[in-house]
Amino acid sequence: EVAGVNFGENWISLDPNADYKTTLARIEDTIDSYPGVFREALTYLNERIEEVLTGAKEPIAVRVYGQDLKTLRAKAAEIQHAIGRIGGVTDAHTDLQVDEPQIEVTVNLANAARYGLKPGDVRRAASTMVAGEEVGDVFRAGRAYDTVVWTTPQTRSDVYAIGQLPINTPSGAVVRLADVAQIRVQPVPNLIERVNDSRKIDVSAGVSGRDLGSVYRDIKAVVARTQFSRGYHAEVIGEFQERQHAQASLLRNALLAVLAILLLLQASFVNWRLAFLILLTLPMALVGGVLAAYLGGGVISLGSLVGFFTVFGISARNGILLINHCQHLETYEGEPFGPELVIRGARERLSPILMTSLATGLAVVPLVVLGDRPGYEIEYPLAAVIIGGLITSTLLNLFVVPSLYLRFGRRRRERAPEHPSAPPDLVPSG
User: Fold this and answer.
1) Cβ contacts of residue 81 below 8 Å, gap of 6+?
2) SS in 3 state form for 331-359?
3) Does the pTM exceed 0.85?
4) Could you identify which of 38, 100, 204, 234 might form a hypothetical disulfide with 64, taking C-beta atoms 3.0 to 4.6 angstroms apart as the criterion?
5) Which of these ranges, 46-60, 195-209, 357-371, has the smallest mean pLDDT?
6) At CA 25, angle to CA 21 and CA 28, rounded to 5?
7) Which residue from 57, 40, 61, 58 is spatially nearest to 1, judged by alpha carbons?
8) 243/363 Cα distance (integer angstroms)
């Protein structure tokens, strides 16, 4: 991971028998006791997901773009001050991009030419003596050690001493570095970050006490009111935005899936009315999943969405099995349409429906029992939604769908003529 000396991470493993919440609270109390240091405690999975999704470690980040670093820092400070007053925002901070001293060697072309030196020769000599250069390897005890040439620490720590460093010329004479170059200390950024060929700086913040969506919208309104010079702009990124994009993509795919399900239902039932009826009842199967998501914190995450789609598919399958069986009883076994047909179909499909729900539910019960623990940030909401959704979908398929089939499932039959052997019309003879 590319990072400067002003950044560090400590990974901590907890004893399985330790109380997670108590231990986490003690860790946070410890890191909060260090003033002037931005810090946060994250699980490994959350930290990795946030970095992959947005490139930032916080739920919300305002990314400011531009070319002049001084202007970027000023705008970042302005935005940090503005969003810090928004309710629910915690630990608003700007990326640590500060100037640090660096030795700069500028070659005097005229003087270098007088001694027969090229600019590259001067820069390479200065770099070798100040920063060091590997010239070989030493092998000892089966290990290779780099051999680096550079000057003494006392020489490297003083600008005047650096100017006295000797440089060999093509003629064999030795000149001082100060004779062919200007040596000075200049401030340079400790970190240079670019996105799409533009400098950027992030203003990041956490969220506490409010839902992420509301805080995101308030921050976006603050950024929209901020005035930027030509060539500078900002955008709000973070977990909420990426979640919205992912949800939009899932919903688009869901619409295509619903259309495919409708066509499959029609092909299975050979009845558009039944196909639309079952499709319209499927959202009722998700009620239990919605309640489970609400009891779990009220946040619809990507894991929750996947759980909803899973329940949706299982409910559709069970509904198809039930109605197809009722149609089979009527068509091939001569069972007359009526309450007895529906009761028999529901009774004979009770075991397959329950086995499907139980097999799926038992597979995710351990994830619900373990709770919202580190490493289960995606699996836990998915499992909770599946468990809740399976309960309501099973009740739907065993009690609601049979009643609806009894009401709307009667097939349209052509009425038989009252006089099948009606006499032919008399044709008058001419």
Assistant:
1) none
2) HHCCCCCCHHHHHHHHHHCHHHHHHHHHH
3) no
4) 234
5) 46-60
6) 140
7) 57
8) 27
